[in-house]
Structure prediction request, 410 residues.
Amino acid sequence: MGRREPMKIAVVGCGDAGLSAAFAAAKQDPNSEVIIISDETSYYPRCPLPYFIGGSVKEKELVYDLRRMFKGTNIKAVNDTVLRVTDGFLECKDGKITFDKAIIATGGIARRIGDSITLRTLEDAKRIKKAAEESDNIVFLGGGMLGCELADVLGGTLLEKQSHILPNFDKKFADAIASKLNKKGVRIITNSERTPKADLVVSCVGVDPDLELAVKSGIKTSRFGINVNDRLETSIKNVYAAGDCIEEKCLITGVPMHSYLGPQAEREGVIAGVNAAGGNMYYKGSLGAVVAKIDDIEIGRTGLCGEEAAERGVSIVEGMVRTKTKPAYDTTAKDLMIKMVFIQERLVGCQALGGEMIDGIINLASYAIQHNATIDDLINMTYCFSPPICSAPNPIILCAENAKRRSKNG
Prediction:
C-alpha cells in the first residue's frame, strides 16, 4: 500500500475553541497538516481581560504569538479572513485554502446597547482601560459575571434590569456579592433599564454567536448558533464547528442554550479537533459551569439553580449548608455557603460562595451531575482531610445530608 497523503485540516478562528481544535487535531493525527486561519496574528484568552483592565495582568503576560506557539508542530498559522466555506476549500480575502476537514470557530459578538463600549477583544479592553482613566462616572449595563468583575476593578454604577445582580444565581448568593461591591463604593441599580448619566458606559449584556461565515456558506443555524450533532458536525459534510458560534444543549434538560464560557469552548474545540482528525468523541451537553472572584469572595454555579429547576414544574429538594473551609480552630478558615438542587434525588445543580475552594466544589458538582449522582451517592462520597487544607466532613457531604433530611420532612 502506498503512503496516504497527509490529511489537511483547516481551523477558522484562533480563540479558545479554535486553538484547542488545532492542537487536538494535530495530536490525534501527527501526520496531518493543520492550518489555523485568523485575521489576528496572536492569541489571548478573554477571561483575564477584566484583570488586564484593572492592572493585575500585563499585556505581555496575556498575548501569545501564533507562529511562535506553533513552532515545532504540524500546525501552521495563516493571517487571513475567511469569506466562505465551500466543498473542499475556503474562500479567503487573499485566495483559496483547500481542506479535507474544516472546523469553524468564529466565536461570538458582544451585544451593544446604544453608544456604549463592549468588552470582547484586547483592543476593547485597551479602549475601556484608557477611557476609565479619564472618567469619573462609569456605568456597566448588565449585572452578570462580567459586569460584576468590571465594577470590582473599576468602581462605578452597575445597572441590572432583573430584581438582583447575577440573575443566574439565587438571590441569597447574589446579595452577598452585591454587599461586597457596595462596601467598595459600587452603586447598584436593579429593576431598571434606564441608564443614568455617565462619562463612560460599558455593555455587559451577553454575547451573540458570530454566524456570518456560516450563513454565507449555507450552513444550518438557529438563534443559538450553528446547528451541530453530537460529533459537532455541521449540516455540510466534513465541516465541524465549536465554541461560542454553535448551538449548545443543556446536559440536564436537552433544551438548546448557549453558555459563552471559555472552558466549554475549549472542550468543544477538543471534540471537533479529534473527530476531524479521525477520532471519535461525543458532545453530551453543557452545564454552564462558571466561577468568579469578586474582591475576596469566590462564587460559582453549575447546572440548574433552584428557581430554574422549580420552573420545570417538578418537585425539587434543596440542600443548604453554611460552614467553614477549614476546621474552626484554624484562624485562616473562611466562610463557605453551598446549595444543591435535586430532582427525584438526582443532583441537577449547585451554587457555592466563599473565601476559597469554590472551583473545586463546582467542578466536583459538575462531574456528579454528569454521572447522575444521587443524594446518597454524595453522602457516601470518599474524601480526604488535612487541617491546614480543608474541613471534615467534606462540605458537599454536609449539604447532601441536609437535602436528605429535607426530603424526609417534605
Notes: The radius of gyration is 23 Å. The longest strand covers residues 316-324.
